[in-house]
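Anyone up for a design puzzle?
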């Protein structure tokens, strides 16, 4: 990139520091990778310290919503009640539920039970049953900044097989997280997740993945978990994205419910689980922003 900025000028990131003590070294390293043919993030994808603070404030609400769900979720409850918990918690802290009216989505949170892979729509008519596994996917806007994370919940007595799926997908995310560090590639994280899931006999959904997040709900890059080490975007300090693999007990194939054009199910009816972490690439690794 043509660098007109002087070494003693203020850095482009708005930190107030001189360019030479802020982003100069990082820019040079990005340039080097780019010259070697790597896909590199644009400056717009590198969050400034100020933006990171604001995104963290948004994430506090997102975490509070999922904590509130964790406390109250139980058999006999409708998914509409989960929606109300998320809506009320978000409003209490002056946030906005990001899913509400997003591309026509009618509720404040996604609730996806058993063979529902993602984008389940909360309903009065959907009652949690003993033995269900459910993903609650929560996203918040505060002051224009976005947070996004999801957790699995096990309702009552869940079969050993389903419990293992839920726990293994969390473990896969944790193994993936360990791959998040500057100057590695998103594919390092993606392949690590896929390898572990496959080793346990599961399959990872190919069509839907993670995304950059923070200044928008969904930013670049698209994040795959069926990818190869050393491929996809270079990870650079300040990048923020989600780790949110959808993992099926059976085949990877999925379909969208034609009744609502939102909810995704496994084609073979097998159970599916997902955890989502919002992650920042730091100078020496990663920081979890929302969980
Ligand atoms: N939270 C989901 C994600 O991780 C997005 C849901 S979009 C919605 O990307 F409209 F369905 F909420
Ligand atoms: Co997401």
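Challenge accepted. My sequence:
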């Amino acid at each position: 990139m043509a660098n007109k900025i002087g070494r003693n000028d203020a850095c482009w990131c708005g930190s107030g520091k001189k360019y030479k003590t802020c982003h100069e070294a990082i820019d040079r390293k990005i340039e080097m990778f780019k010259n070697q043919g790597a896909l590199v993030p644009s400056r717009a994808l590198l969050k400034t310290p100020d933006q990171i603070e604001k995104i963290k404030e948004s994430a506090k609400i997102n975490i509070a919503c999922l904590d509130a769900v964790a406390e109250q979720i139980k058999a006999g409850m409708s998914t509409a009640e989960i929606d109300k918990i998320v809506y009320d918690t978000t409003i209490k802290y002056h946030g906005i539920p990001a899913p509400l009216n997003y591309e026509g989505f009618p509720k404040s949170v996604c609730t996806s039970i058993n063979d529902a892979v993602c984008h389940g729509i909360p309903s009065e008519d959907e009652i949690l049953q003993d033995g269900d596994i459910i993903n609650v996917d929560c996203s918040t806007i505060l002051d224009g900044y976005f947070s996004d994370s999801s957790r699995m919940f096990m309702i009552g007595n869940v079969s050993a097989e389903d419990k293992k799926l839920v726990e293994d997908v969390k473990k896969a995310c944790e193994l993936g997280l360990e791959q998040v560090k500057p100057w590695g590639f998103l594919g390092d994280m993606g392949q690590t997740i896929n390898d572990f899931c496959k080793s346990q006999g599961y399959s990872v959904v190919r069509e839907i993945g993670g995304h950059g997040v923070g200044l928008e709900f969904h930013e670049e890059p698209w994040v795959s978990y069926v990818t190869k080490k050393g491929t996809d975007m270079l990870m650079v300090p300040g990048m923020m994205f989600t780790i949110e693999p959808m993992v099926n007990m059976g085949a990877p194939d999925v379909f969208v419910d034609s009744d609502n054009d939102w909810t995704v199910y496994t084609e073979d009816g097998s159970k599916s689980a997902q955890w989502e972490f919002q992650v920042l690439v730091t100078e020496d690794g990663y920081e979890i922003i929302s969980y």
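A detail worth pointing out: The chain has a mean pLDDT of 97.
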